[in-house]
Amino acid sequence: MFRRLILPAAVLLALTTGCAGAGQEPAEPSGGATPKITLGFSAWPGWFPWQVAQEQGLFAKNGVQVELKYFDSYTDSLNALATGNIDANSQTLNDTLASVAGGAEETVVLVNDNSTGNDQIIAKEGVTSVAGLKGMTVAAEQGTVDHYLLLLALEKAGLTEADVTFQPLPTDAAAAAFVAGRVDAVGVFAPFTTTALKRPGSAPIATSADFPGAIPDHLVVNKKLLDRDAKGVQALVKTWFDTVAWISANREKALEIMAKRAGVSVADYETYDKGTTIFTLEQNRTAFSDELPARAKQISDFLVASKLVDAAPPLDGLLEPKFVMAVQP
User: Fold this and answer.
1) Could you give the dihedral angle defined by the CA atoms of residues 262, 266, 268 and 271, in that order, rounded to the nearest 10 degrees?
2) Model pLDDT for residues 279-303, shown as the tens digit of each residue
3) Do residues 31 and 167 both lie within one domain?
4) Where would you tag: which of 120, 173, 193, 329 has the fewest CB atoms within 10 A of its CB?
């Protein structure tokens, strides 16, 4: 299962019970070896470039030893970062805010992308607008980014979640239920949009393109990593921009790598291009300077108002722009 927001209660549970080794300090390398950074990612077009970085040796080129860990369950990656079982993770801003609200200590150091259409509310044939969902059953993973998108879309249409029957399902199961005709609409993200749209006559009635900037995706690090290995974090950020440049210069090979990791054809993967806007270095700098602080406050307020979190997360220390500012173009 691939999942992109976790509820604070689940984060708190992970923080208090944890996985094996939760709460332990990372072991120090022996003999002066370069510390290894464990970087998590999962199924989202804006994060598959990390697979390219690994296969093309771009982490090593920047002098950082990385254990790249792919999570079938995005929720598991969020828990792993929250409990300190990985050092860094690829996750959305609203997911990060929810984790911080649950007690996690995390910092955003890079904008990978903005979702510009690859998060979608897809409805059955005959339903052509969000207003048409009134009284219908809509599936999405509860507390996830596409639950968040659903709430944004309902609000824009003058509705609330009480106007629909919400069916909480994991993202892959939600897509399958929609294709099987068990629900009337579904909230999913790529590559599960491809699955959902196999239902005859189905079509998106709302996407992240309708809410510009609402769903930014990031490299987020455990604050302990910042204290332990700021140089390594800088190398991760530099590697990202090197990877984006490599993909631009070697598009055919890059698409093969990313499509294979996504489990889809190259042709299907190419359809995700417009729905995910990869951020340049200049866009990163602008985002940290002008956009992200306000966006974080806006999302925080919405999460509280929608009761997706119990209390607003602390925003101090959430954003750290120094790493993108230090990258040489």
Assistant:
1) 110
2) 999 999 999 998 999 999 999 998 8
3) no
4) 329
Residue 43 to residue 71: CA distance in whole angstroms: 8
Beta bridge partners of 166: 138
Please check whether residues 294 and 155 belong to one and the same domain.
no
The band of 22, judged by pLDDT with boundaries at 50, 70 and 90, is: very low
Q: What is the CATH number of the domain that holds 32?
A: 3.40.190.10
Q: In 180-250, which residue ranges form alpha helices assigned H by DSSP?
A: 192-196, 223-228, 230-249
Picking from 186, 210, 234, the residue at the C-terminal end of a domain is: 210
C-alpha span between 309 and 102 (Å, rounded): 8
Q: How far is CA 40 from CA 72, 88, 199, in A?
A: 11, 6, 32
Instruction: Tell me the C-alpha distance between 23 and 20, whole Å.
Output: 9
Close Cβ partners of 60 (under 8 Å, ≥ 6 residues apart): none
Which residue range is the domain that position 127 belongs to?
A: 119-210
Which of 210, 236, 257 is at the close of a domain?
Answer: 210
Output the pLDDT for position 126: 97
pLDDT in tens, 220-233: 999 999 999 999 99
pTM given for the model: 0.84
pLDDT tier, 33 (very low <50, low <70, confident <90, very high otherwise): low
| Among 217, 221, 214, CA closest to 318 | 221
